[in-house]
Structures are given as structure tokens and as C-alpha cells.
Design goal:
The protein is of the alpha+beta class and 173 residues long. The chain is 34% helix and 23% strand.
Length: 173
């Protein structure tokens, strides 16, 4: 695939937000997620609801989804967006690095990374990315949460803080 491709008809390009707009959008999304998932314990239902509501409230979310830990590698799980990679080895790409290190990865420009090793270009329209490891209550990795944007520099410490807190609330402690 080339460095750019025509976006599918059902996908809108990302729109970055100011810090204040981002804070307000995350507050609204958080309220909606917590209200819809109150008392829910099914992991897949939680994942699809989180994907849907975050993509609804955050206009720079181009691709959003979970890659599930599966026998030492990641397998695509619930997501919204264009086709995701089916399997990712730990340590390969941004998702694999998040899984291997257990730390959130924020990438301002995915096109600046070594393709195939540091970044896996499942969709050439993705320009920035955040990947958050998801742990269960025993602090075992169950997934990584991946969000891509068609704009450079979409993700920052505000995204990281919100997502880490939300995912810990829903899947961990």
C-alpha cells in the first residue's frame, strides 16, 4: 500500500480538538460509557461500547479498537474503522511494543517510524496513534487499546490520562 490511500466512503477524516474541547469531549464520553456499562461484566460488551462511544464523541478517532492477548501475541478484537491487522507479535509495531513493555505508547507521526518494525501500516491514512495496555484485576495483560488518527499529533498526555483511567476502571482494579 502507498503512503496515502483514498479513505473509504464510510470513514471520515480526523478533526483535532483544542485542549478544552478535548477535555469536554472526554467528560461527555466518560459519563456515557460509565452509564452504559454500570454493572456490566462481559468483556466484549465493554469493548464494543467503549469503541462506539469514544468514536462518537472524539472526532479525531479514525480507528479505535482492542487487540486481545492470545498466547503471546495480539489478535484483533472489537474495533471500529477500516480493516485492522489480524495478528501482531509482541514487540512488533506500536501495539506490540505496548504489549511487551506494559506501557502506553503515544506516537505523534507514525510515518516517521520504521515501517514493519516500529509501525505496522494496516491503514496508510493513520498518521498518529496511542496504544494503552489493558490489564485485568490481577494485572495480567488482556489486550491493548489502539486509537489512530488521520492527523499528526492528535494524542497527548490528556488522552493518555483519560484512557488509562477508563480502562483501569472497566477492566482492572
Amino acid at each position: 500500500m502507498s503512503a496515502t490511500a483514498e479513505m473509504p466512503y464510510f470513514i471520515k477524516p480526523s478533526v483535532n480538538l483544542t485542549a478544552a474541547e478535548k477535555r469536554a469531549a472526554y467528560e461527555q464520553a466518560g459519563q456515557a460509557i460509565r452509564a452504559n456499562l454500570l454493572g456490566e461484566d462481559n468483556l466484549i460488551l465493554k469493548m464494543v461500547t467503549i469503541n462506539c462511544l469514544l468514536k462518537t464523541y472524539l472526532p479525531y478517532y479514525y480507528w479505535v479498537g482492542f487487540y486481545l492477548e492470545n498466547q503471546g501475541r495480539l489478535t484483533v478484537g472489537p474495533y471500529q474503522g477500516t480493516l485492522g491487522c489480524l495478528h501482531i507479535d509482541f514487540g512488533r509495531g506500536v501495539c506490540g511494543k505496548a504489549a511487551r513493555t506494559g506501557t502506553t505508547q503515544v506516537v505523534a507521526d507514525t510515518h516517521a517510524l520504521v515501517q514493519g518494525a516500529e509501525h505496522i501500516a494496516c491503514d496508510p491514512n493513520s498518521r498518529s496513534e496511542i496504544v494503552v495496555p489493558v490489564f485485568d484485576a490481577q494485572h495480567q495483560l488482556i489486550a491493548v487499546f489502539d486509537v489512530d488518527s488521520t492527523e499528526e499529533g492528535s494524542f497527548d498526555e490528556q488522552d493518555q490520562a483519560f484512557l488509562e483511567t477508563l480502562l483501569r476502571e472497566q477492566f482492572g482494579e
